[in-house]
């Protein structure tokens, strides 16, 4: 944001702020402060990258799905994640960036994606746990974003949220099926939940007192809730689901607080979170290397399609010139 | 990015996508996507925007072919309709006991 706006910029800023104050939406061709644009590009790009990288942990299991039914479901789910990435890149492009530029920043490590996708998927139960906990946490984050102040972002989130419910339910149903199985299968579910619980809580970002951008993002209507609020909401939603499933959430401090009408719970390992964000998680290098390889291996396809399009349009253009 | 000449290495052009949700409804703008040509844009639109029977018809148009009003001229452009309240039915007072009005 400019420190001392020029008179006409001051007017533009007032118009922008009154739109926000009316709880109206900002649209791409509206004037907006540079900081607002930058914050949105960073957040939407990070969100889009998360969807695209998020295909990898589960895509890992498509060829080893235990039945044709599970395989069809998992394929549809991973395809949805690609679609969600594309909705979000499309929203981000309305801010004057391009998908190519964003992809290049991702594979150069210049833009981030959700820390959760840097954890490995070690068993098929992880497919269920990701649907239940990871997509459940994503829903908690994304539902309020349907009302975000930037129109294209909110509209993309509405599409994403509609589809996300399928993701969570297929995951929970998968885990329920395993819980009705053998002791070994039940142990697989518990082991998977033990690994994913804390990383899922970290998905909401650092605690509020360590989240310097939150206040400005909320003033601009980009974010509607703080990280800690959403984390609390997620814990309160998930506890009864865990009980119904018959698994234990791995937190000895997790207890209902009658006074607060909410659950108290332990503190995630923020040092681990910072390490994963910095690129030192279990799978960071693998995820980016895979994305880069897919991008580079696909170059000839993109170029061939462009060459074909150019050739098929040639005769038409010649006629036009005459 | 902007100084890139059109070539096979350039990014596929941007298309805006409009979907008719069902018969009887208008096509509605749903988002955008990149495709090498018009046919590919329709196929990609099907895969990206209608995976769950959201549409019975798709329009795609190159984004750079769209002409739009500018937010800067918003006031003058829409001003002509601003002071014509008589174009609205509520402008006319009709007694409440007159039926079917």
Automatic annotation (TrEMBL), chain A:
Transmembrane segments: none
Species name: Nocardioides jiangsuensis
Keywords: Oxidoreductase
Record-listed E.C. numbers: 1.14.13.149
Gene3D superfamilies hit by this protein: 1.20.1260.10
Recorded name of the encoding gene: paaA
InterPro entries referenced in this protein's UniProt entry, alphabetically: Aromatic_CoA_ox/epox (IPR052703), Ferritin-like (IPR012347), Ferritin-like_SF (IPR009078), PaaA (IPR011881), PaaA_PaaC (IPR007814)
PANTHER family: 1,2-PHENYLACETYL-COA EPOXIDASE, SUBUNIT A, PHENYLACETIC ACID DEGRADATION PROTEIN PAA
Entries under Pfam families matching the protein: PaaA_PaaC
GO molecular function, one term: phenylacetyl-CoA 1,2-epoxidase activity
Keyword Oxidoreductase appears in the UniProt entry: yes
Coiled coil: none
Enzyme class, UniProt record, top EC level: oxidoreductase
Official protein name in the record: 1,2-phenylacetyl-CoA epoxidase subunit A
Keyword Oxidoreductase assigned: yes
Automatic annotation (TrEMBL), chain B:
Organism (species): Nocardioides jiangsuensis
Family annotation (NCBIfam families): PA_CoA_Oxy2 (TIGR02157)
Entry-linked Pfam families: PaaB
Taxonomic classification: Bacteria, Bacillati, Actinomycetota, Actinomycetes, Propionibacteriales
Matching InterPro entries: PaaB, PaaB_sf
Protein name in UniProt: 1,2-phenylacetyl-CoA epoxidase subunit B
